[in-house]
Amino acid sequence: MKVLAAMSGGVDSAVAAARAVEAGHDVVGVHLALSRMPGTLRTGSRGCCTIEDSRDAWRACDILGIPYYVWDFSERFKEDVVDDFIAEYAAGRTPNPCMRCNERIKFAALLEKALALGFDAVCTGHYAKVIEDADGNRELHRAADWAKDQSYVLGVLTHEQLKHSMFPLAETPSKAEVRAEAERRGLSVANKPDSHDICFIPDGDTRGWLEERIELTEGDILDVDGTKLGTHPGANAFTVGQRKGLKLGRPAPDGKPRFVLEIRPKENTVVVGPEQLLAIDEMRGIKVSWAGRPIPEVGTGEEFDCMAQVRAHGDPVDARARVEAGADGRPELVVRLIEPMRGVAPGQTVVLYQGSRVLGQATIDSARSALRPEPAGAAG
């Protein structure tokens, strides 16, 4: 099989490519140049997709004896990931850029180009598993190592994309084993730190980065009953669940801290309240997609049991979900949580599971707490 190995410059993608070579596939390595500042270097474990990473990817391909190329996807990355990130925050939502990158870059733009060039599959170092059912349909499942499982950020993959996806690290029991294997293979990235934070904000200061790109206008901070408690420099600079930086002159009546419950960008207001109101019981999602063939209940509109996860490394919680038509006629996902979940914000992604299988995902449009009569997600 002709395989295009996406080489990030990290240890996971290097070992994944090595395993694809060892399995007898015809492998070509490619590094995606996503940064529009090619002189940027990573700082320790912050950021990725830099010149340093490109060189590390080249060294790995050289040791593996496979061709190596760099493809410039920086313009597409800026439009589909960076600009989307800014627009979502400007609309008062909390986006997940890793989901957008996997959806629009690694498994849309990259896969599309790979197939056009005659490749059969794209291989990545993600910790996730693709399984075929009895009819040959592909399903996305959690990896063997739940601590490193990355199926959440792959929840946007479609059935067609799963047909051409290869994850050689699926059954690896731990990251330590991957590093040890890299060492045995003579790969210089064996002990390279994992990247974290948002790759295009390598210093980790998301708020400061956004303040340079979103026009902020002073507005009101309100209590849940609409009482004005203070002012803020701009609603877009806040996120649901935030506690620090509110700068309210007076404490709550019970003396306990207040948290951001809701952001209303159209009114330029921030709603704050007690911590218990962050516990969400129900969420509604838009931009729904299914990882593989949808389960029958999706077509019938019946409610089904599942588990819901809203962060890459968050704990899944028991839930009941159903699909219904939204106001615009497009499908919406309604998820009722059996146990409330804290700090859910519009713009985040909810991924549904049954056992280890990823069913699909949606972008959270609104979220509500049963302790608060009106929806908590009116933002947008």
TrEMBL record:
Key word RNA-binding present: yes
Region called Interaction with tRNA, residue ranges: 148-150
Source species of the chain: Arthrobacter crusticola
Name of protein: tRNA-specific 2-thiouridylase MnmA
Presence of keyword Transferase: yes
Enzyme class: transferase
Free-text function comment from the UniProt entry: Catalyzes the 2-thiolation of uridine at the wobble position (U34) of tRNA, leading to the formation of s(2)U34.
Residues at the site labelled Interaction with tRNA: 126, 348
GO cellular component: cytoplasm
Active site location: 101, 199
tRNA-specific 2-thiouridylase MnmA-like C-terminal domain segment(s): 281-364
GO biological process: tRNA wobble position uridine thiolation
Originating gene: mnmA
Residues in tRNA-specific 2-thiouridylase MnmA-like central domain copies: 209-273
Entry superkingdom: Bacteria
A GO term for molecular function: ATP binding
UniProt record similarity statement: Belongs to the MnmA/TRMU family.
Keyword annotations of the record: ATP-binding, Cytoplasm, Disulfide bond, Nucleotide-binding, RNA-binding, Transferase, tRNA processing, tRNA-binding
